[in-house]
């Protein structure tokens, strides 16, 4: 078991900067379940991660709430899911979720991964976001 890492950020920019650095060191095939309340910084983190992966126009990374998934192209593609509005895991199965999160050449981030239940592969890592106050967040990576 990897020791959980805990980071405190004091602004969205700090979360982006941290995620960018984190993204630069990632191995393809990684899957991250992003958990935590609305507005805690999950999408902001993905934006930084996209920068770190060298995604073009990573400033356009936004919540895929209404489409379930975005694909961002880079040398290592980034699959960004948001399960907030998911009614059943069948919807994920229908878009080939299992194939995406098991793609050894890509990185996957899943917001509200709790709703994807047993479709989350066992090798997934969990990143938990906690709101401390309006601008401070605790990010725990396990
Ligand atoms: N330290 C911080 N880290 C990240 N975001 C912050 C921070 N401080 C303030 N914010 C603000 O909090 C909001 C976080 O929004 P974001 O869309 O990233 O949350 P989310 O966890 O993806 O929410 P949702 O569950 O609705 O998808 C943004 O408006 C951002 O500017
Ligand atoms: Mg979000």
Q: Which ions and ligands are bound to the chains?
A: adenosine-5'-triphosphate, magnesium ion
Secondary structural class: alpha/beta
- Which residues sit in consecutive blocks of at least 5 with pLDDT less than 50? none
Write down the CATH topology. Rossmann fold
Total E-strand runs: 7
- CATH architecture annotation name: 3-Layer(aba) Sandwich
CATH superfamily: P-loop containing nucleotide triphosphate hydrolases
Strands side by side in the biggest sheet: 1-7-6-2-5-4-3
The largest β sheet comes out as: 7 strands, mixed
Domain module count: 1
H-E order: EHEHEEHHEEE
**In percent, how much strand structure appears in the residues?**
25-35%
Report the total helices. Answer: 4
Mean pLDDT: 93
Rounded to an integer in angstroms, the radius of gyration calculated over CA atoms is: 14 Å
TL;DR?
The protein has 142 residues and is an alpha/beta fold. The chain has helices at 12-24, 42-53, 89-94, 97-101, and strands at residues 5-9, 31-35, 69-72, 78-82, 107-111, 125-131, 137-141.
